[in-house]
Amino acid sequence: MITQNKIEVALAAADQPVMVESAEQMQDALNEWLSCDVIGIDTEFVRERTWRADLGLVQLSDGKKVWLVDPLKTGPLQVLADLFENQAIVKVLHAPSEDLDVLLYTTDSVPDPMFDTQTACAMLGEPLQMGYHKTVEWLLGITVDKGETRSNWIKRPLRPAQLHYAALDVCLLPMMHRHLEAKLVELDRLEWLEEDCTRLLDKALTPAEPDHTWKRINGNGRLDGTSLAILQSLAKWRDEEAERRNLARGFVIRDNALMTIANQQPRSLEALSELDVWHPKPVQRHGPMIIATIDHILEQGISSDIPDLLLPRHRPMMHEMRKLVNGRASELSVEPALLASKRELESLILSPGNEPLSERFMGWRYDVITSELIALKNEYS
C-alpha cells in the first residue's frame, strides 16, 4: 500500500541524491544496488544532432535513496551490467525504449528483468503514451517538476535544479512498481506486461537492418519500382554515413531530399544541383556517388518490389477488424492500439496465409484478439 510517509521518504531522497563520480564510488554503489529487490532506473541524454545519444546521467533509486551516476566523470559504465543482468532484481523504467538504446551502447547490456510503468498503465486503461509526470499524478496524486526537460545534460557543471529534476524522475519508480504490479495481478494481466517487456528488450538487442531503413521514409509507397530501388540504396548509404560521422540522419540529407532524388533520378551533378534539395558542398562531396548509384540502377534495369497497399476490396475487412478490436478494447477498458494498431491490422490483412504471424500478434494477444482477427480474415478470403 502506498502511504504518504513512503512518498515523503522518496521525495526526500530526491532532495539529497548521492553523486557517483568515480569508479570507486560506482563500485560502492553497485554493492548497495545488488542488495535491492527492485530498483528504478532512468537516464538523461542529449540527442539532437547526433546518431548516438550522448549520455549525461544515469539515475537509480530503491525508493529510499537516489544515486546520480555521472558518466563524464566515472569513466566506462560496464560495471552496471552486473546490476542489469541480475535476474533477482526487477529494474523499473518508464517508456524505456530510448533508455535501452543508450544503456546498451554504453554498458553492452540492458536491464533485465524489466518493468515498464508506461506499458503497465496502458494495460490498466490509461493512455498508451502517458508521460512520467502524468503517470505520477494519476497514480500517486502528486505533481513533480518538469522544468528541466530540455536541459543540456552534457554541459558541466550540472545545476542543482537539474540534479533535483533528474532525481525526481527516478525516486518514485519503485513505489509505482509495487502499486502497478498489484493492480495487474488483480486483473490477471501481469503476464501481459512481462511478455511485452521481454519483447522490448529483444527489440533493443536486435540490430537494425540497414536494408530496411527506407521504410521509415514517408511516401515510399508512392514510388515506382525503379525509384524505390534508388531510395532503398540511398537510404542505406545515408544510415552508414550518419553512423560513421555520428550525425542525425537529417544532417546528412533530409528524407524529402531523398524522395525527390529517387523520383527525379538526376544523371549529372548539374541535374542534382538543380533539384535544390541539398547544399552545394555535400553535392560536390557525395554527388558523384549518388549519380553513380542512379546510373547503375537504371542501366541494370533494377526494380524493387513495390510494397503491397490496402485496396478498395480490403476496406470491408479493415472496417470489421477495427470494429472487433474496438469492441474488445472497450470490454477490457484499454486503448484499441494496445491490442492492435491500424498499421498492424494492415500488415495482417496483406500478409500471405502461409506466412508466420508477427510476434506482436502472438502471446497474450493471440487469445485476446488475434484468433478472432484470423477467423475474420479467413471469412473474407
Q: What's the layout of helices and strands?
A:
Blueprint: H1 4-15, E1 18-20, H2 23-33, E2 38-46, E3 54-61, E4 66-69, H3 71-74, H4 81-84, E5 90-93, H5 97-107, E6 114-116, H6 117-122, H7 132-140, H8 160-171, H9 173-186, H10 190-205, H11 225-245, H12 249-252, H13 255-264, H14 269-274, H15 280-300, H16 315-332, H17 336-339, H18 342-350, H19 364-380
Parallel strand pairs: 1-4, 2-5, 5-6
Antiparallel strand pairs: 2-3, 3-4
Structural key phrases:
flat, 6-stranded mixed beta sheet, 381 residues, 3 domains, alpha/beta, 19 helices, DNA polymerase, domain 1
What is the name of the CATH superfamily of the largest domain? Ribonuclease H-like superfamily/Ribonuclease H
Structural class: alpha/beta
CATH topology name of the largest domain, in short, is Nucleotidyltransferase, domain 5
Question: Which H/E pattern describes the elements?
Answer: HEHEEEHHEHEHHHHHHHHHHHHHH
Q: How would you write the strand order of the largest sheet? A: 1-4-3-2-5-6
Oligomer: single chain
End-to-end Cα distance, whole Å, is 52 Å
Radius of gyration, CA atoms, in whole angstroms: 24 Å
- Structural domain tally: 3
Number of strands: 6
Largest sheet: 6 strands, mixed
Helix content: 40-55%
Could you list the spans in which at least 5 consecutive residues all have pLDDT below 50? Answer: none
- Approximately how much beta-strand content do the residues carry? 5-15%
Q: Output the number of helix runs.
A: 19
The CATH architecture of the largest domain can be given as: 2-Layer Sandwich
**What's the shape?**
flat
Overall pLDDT level: 95
